[in-house]
Every structure is written in structure tokens, then in C-alpha cells.
Design goal:
By secondary structure, the protein is mostly beta strands. Helices cover 5% and strands 49% of the residues. It has a domain at 300-319 and 340-510. The longest helix has 13 residues, at 25-37.
């Protein structure tokens, strides 16, 4: 076989056998290097099973996996050199990724073939704590420009599957990622401190978060702590992960200008998930999310600034009292979600928990429909110390400022449909439930100030529409609601009667 046919370098011409037994790393790398020496082009892997360790792309190289081609990750740890790379936000020694590259431009991994990381031994060694370094990722590029990953199927990744770090102009399109649901830390797509990222038409079913946007941690050198910005995620289906689309918890460099649309989540633990904690710093801002359908999730939406994974028991992280605001105080702001449907929800309709000293701010949810499952076990909607178990709860919000709920409906809940605590500048417009809990109000506000409740509905099965409590509750207004309930407003023992003013009159009652 000629090494070069029509500008295409075939790995078989460089000695690759593709027999599923022979280690073909050197042959595949030789084809890539030869292509690079000619100024770039396409390296083709034809049908067959090619066992390989870590391989490095070069500038201007397209690695094309033809239909029927399978790259099988070597099961020998020695085939993965130790490199210094970013893992979970921090620079540290790691095993080299199966496909890797640093400071490259115009690179691509495309085709209808499969990359099988054969991660079982890595997962076992990780669980047994017998690995000296962080596990390899399946595909990881660092400080690269013009990156394309398209069409391939990626399975059984040792850890994160696709992980561009500090890359610019990244396109990930029509990729299928399948890792076992119980495989540890096998995230699907993790752009980390990247700019201009487009993820579209992908299917992701993994053992951790499906798609996660990250931006480094507080311990990293400042010159490497870049934001992740200008990201679009669209037309994707996510299944069986810890989160559908996630931001954080590594977000010290900041995350901004993100659009997520037209996605389906099936059986993910959380749906849309924002997570960070004190000490991380960074700002998550200007996020737009629309047209999402979820089924069989634990909690469709979470914003958690007390994220404890990796810091369990740390009282600075878990303290629910306000602490001084510093550059290491994380912020979530200007986040807007619309046209979301979730069915068979288990723990809670939503869980938003800002810091006492830094509430989540300018959060809008509109045209949302959430139905809780008829039967569900109790659990924790987010990973944080000192949280209560929840079971079929409604919207739970604590420490929010500038929260707007427009045309939000919650059904099948146990307890209040909407519970807001320690929040300010709140608007509820057109919010309702068709299944009021007879022992609880539809809306409960505790220590909430400057709230406007209008255009809401309560049917005749409702006993109390709004319950207000807390000494700090004030300036709560009800106008233009349609309330057929027994009692529109109830005032708790700790609240002042003048905290609420209303024009509500129940038809047929004085």
C-alpha cells in the first residue's frame, strides 16, 4: 500500500495491523508525523481494531476514523506517558490522554469510527486507589486553536471523555459518547477555560456530568485561570449522568456568555446544574437556556453555592451565616431559563441556594412546567453539608435577589409549590399548581422583602394561597390574582401584618 494516496496518509501503510492484538501506537504516530512533515492533511484509520497507547496530533492534521475503524486504548499503563496537565481545574501530573495535543492549530478528529478507551481497569484502579497519577482522558487538547471533533463514537473513557483546555474556536458535532452509568468521573464533554465553543447534535450517556463548562480553580496560577466564554450547546440528548448540562464547580476563571437550547435529558440526576463554593471566586453570568425537556430526573434545576464535594465538613464552605465578601466569593448572576418541561421528577422541582453574603442574582424562569413523580424516595437535591432531605418538593429558593418566576406550574408536589427564604426583589407572575397540598400553602415566603405576586391562580381545593412568615418579611404585594381558595393570605407568628398588602377578594365571600 502506498503511504500517500490522494493526499491521505493511511496508518496501515506505516505498519498498523488493526488486528485487535498488536500495539499500533508507533505506526499511527508515524503516519501523523509524516503527514505533518508534508504540511498537514488527513490521516486515515480504515476498518479494523487498532490497539494504541497515547498518540499526539500535529498542526493541520485531520485524524479520520472510517466506518468500522476502532481505536482500542492500550491496557498497559506504560503506553500513557506522564504529562503535566489540568485535571479538575488544577495543574498536576496525569497520564497522557489517548489522543492529545498542545499548542496546535487546525486539528480534527472525525469520521464514523469508534474510540474505545477500555476504561474498566482504570476505573478499578481508581476505586482501589492504586494509581499514582490522574487517569488519562480519551481526547484532550490544550492551548489549541481551530479544533473539530465530529461524527465519532467515544466509549469507555478512563475519565473525562472530551476535554479541551484553554482552546479557542472548538466545534464538537454529531458525537456519541457512551460510558457506563457507574463509571467514575467519566464526564462527556468538558470545555475548560475555552473561548468560542459550539456543541451540537450530540448524544451523551455517562457516569458523571454529561456536558460541563469549567474554568479552573482558585489554587491555579492566575495566568492560567482563564474564563470559559462564548459557548453554545444545542440539539443534544443527555442520559444517565449526574447532570445534563453543568457549570462548575471549577469556575474560578469565570463562565460567561453561554446559550443552551433544544436539548432532552433522560434519567440524569440533575438537569441544569450550577455549582460552586466559597473560596473558588469567579463569576457565572449571562447564561440563556431555552427549550429543554426532561424525564425521570432527581431535580431539574439546581444552583448551589455550598457545593461540598471535595470539601465535606469544611465549616468555611458549609457555614450558612454571611461571611465577608472577597475576591474568592463566587457569584451567579443574570441567568435566564425559559420553555422547560420536566416529568417524573423525584426530589424537588428546583433547588436554588445562594450564599448568605452573595445571593444568586437576576434569575428569571419563564414558561416552566414541572410534574413530580407519584412515588419517589427522599434524597438530597444537591451535594452540600447540612441540607434537608427532600421528596417531591416544589421550587425551593434561598438567598436570591432579583428572582422572577413567570408562568411556572408545579404539579404533584408534597408541601408548598413555591418556597422562598431569605430573598428579596421577587416576582411571581402567573404561577400555579393544579394539585395543592391541603396541609400547605401554594406559596410560602419566609424573610422575603419586596415581593410582587400577581396573575397567579388558586383553585377551590386550596386552603391557603400565600403564607408569609419571618421578622424580615416586608413590602409584599398581591395584585390581580385569581384566588378561589379558602384563605388568600396567612400571616405567621414572626411576621408583621403590615408586611403584606393586597387587593385580593375571594368571589362570593365578604
Amino acid at each position: 500500500m502506498s503511504a500517500l494516496q490522494g493526499g491521505v496518509f493511511n496508518v496501515r501503510a506505516y505498519g498498523a495491523l488493526g488486528d485487535g492484538q498488536t500495539l499500533d501506537t508507533a505506526a499511527i504516530q508515524a503516519a501523523i508525523d509524516a503527514c505533518y512533515q508534508q504540511g498537514g492533511g488527513t490521516v486515515t484509520v480504515s476498518a479494523g481494531n487498532f490497539v494504541t497507547g497515547s498518540i499526539a496530533l500535529r498542526d493541520n492534521i485531520t485524524l479520520n476514523l472510517e466506518a468500522g475503524a476502532v481505536l482500542l486504548g492500550s491496557e498497559d499503563l506504560n503506553d500513557y506517558p506522564i504529562l503535566n496537565g489540568r485535571w479538575e481545574g488544577a495543574e498536576q501530573p496525569t497520564y497522557a490522554s489517548l489522543i492529545t495535543g498542545t499548542q496546535l492549530q487546525n486539528i480534527a478528529v472525525v469520521g464514523r469510527g469508534t474510540i474505545d478507551g477500555r476504561g474498566a481497569q482504570w476505573w478499578r484502579r481508581f476505586t482501589d486507589k492504586t494509581l499514582e497519577y490522574a487517569r488519562p482522558r480519551l481526547i484532550a487538547f490544550t492551548n489549541c486553536t481551530n479544533v473539530l471533533i465530529e461524527g465519532i463514537t467515544a466509549i469507555n473513557s478512563p475519565s473525562w471523555t472530551i476535554n479541551p483546555v484553554r482552546c479557542e474556536n472548538v466545534t464538537i458535532h454529531r458525537v456519541s459518547i457512551i460510558n457506563p452509568a457507574d463509571s467514575p468521573n467519566t464526564d462527556g464533554i468538558n470545555p475548560d477555560s475555552c473561548r468560542m465553543v459550539r456543541v451540537s447534535n450530540c448524544y451523551v450517556s455517562v457516569g458523571d456530568d454529561c456536558i460541563t463548562i469549567k474554568a479552573g480553580v482558585e489554587t491555579e496560577d492566575r495566568d492560567k485561570r482563564a474564563p470559559c466564554e462564548n459557548v453554545t450547546i444545542t440539539n443534544c440528548t443527555m442520559a444517565h449522568g449526574h447532570g445534563g448540562v453543568v457549570i462548575g464547580s471549577e469556575m474560578s476563571g469565570g463562565v460567561r456568555n453561554v446559550v443552551i437550547s433544544n436539548c432532552v435529558f433522560i434519567g440524569t440526576d440533575r438537569g441544569l446544574r450550577f455549582k460552586s463554593r466559597r473560596g473558588r471566586g469567579g463569576v457565572v453570568e449571562d447564561i440563556r437556556i431555552s427549550n429543554i425537556v426532561m424525564t425521570d430526573v432527581l431535580c431539574p434545576l439546581t444552583m448551589n453555592l455550598y457545593y461540598a464535594c471535595g470539601a465535606w465538613g469544611d465549616t468555611q464552605v458549609s457555614d450558612k451565616q454571611a461571611q465577608p465578601v472577597t475576591e474568592r466569593t463566587p457569584q451567579f448572576r443574570r441567568i435566564h431559563l425559559s420553555h422547560i418541561t420536566a416529568r417524573e421528577v423525584k426530589y424537588a422541582a428546583a433547588f436554588l441556594y445562594g450564599l448568605a453574603e452573595m445571593p444568586v442574582e437576576d434569575i428569571t424562569l419563564s414558561d416552566i412546567s414541572i410534574s413530580l413523580a407519584a412515588e419517589a424516595e427522599a434524597g438530597y437535591p444537591e451535594m452540600a453539608d447540612d441540607m434537608d432531605l427532600m421528596q417531591r418538593a416544589g421550587f425551593f429558593v434561598r438567598n436570591a435577589r432579583g428572582l422572577s418566576l413567570h408562568h411556572v406550574e408545579v404539579n404533584g408536589q408534597s408541601g408548598a409549590a413555591f418556597r422562598l427564604i431569605d430573598s428579596s426583589e421577587v416576582e411571581l407572575n402567573g404561577c400555579a399548581t393544579r394539585t395543592p397540598d391541603p396541609n400547605h400553602p401554594i406559596v410560602r415566603l419566609d424573610n422575603v422583602d419586596h415581593a410582587f405576586v400577581h396573575g397567579c391562580r388558586a383553585n377551590s381545593d386550596t386552603r391557603v394561597f400565600l403564607h408569609v412568615d419571618g421578622a424580615r418579611s416586608r413590602d409584599i404585594a398581591l395584585r390581580g390574582n385569581h384566588l378561589l381558595c379558602e384563605q388568600p393570605i396567612a400571616i405567621g407568628a414572626d411576621a408583621r401584618a403590615e408586611a403584606v398588602w393586597s387587593d385580593e377578594v375571594v368571589p362570593g365571600r365578604p
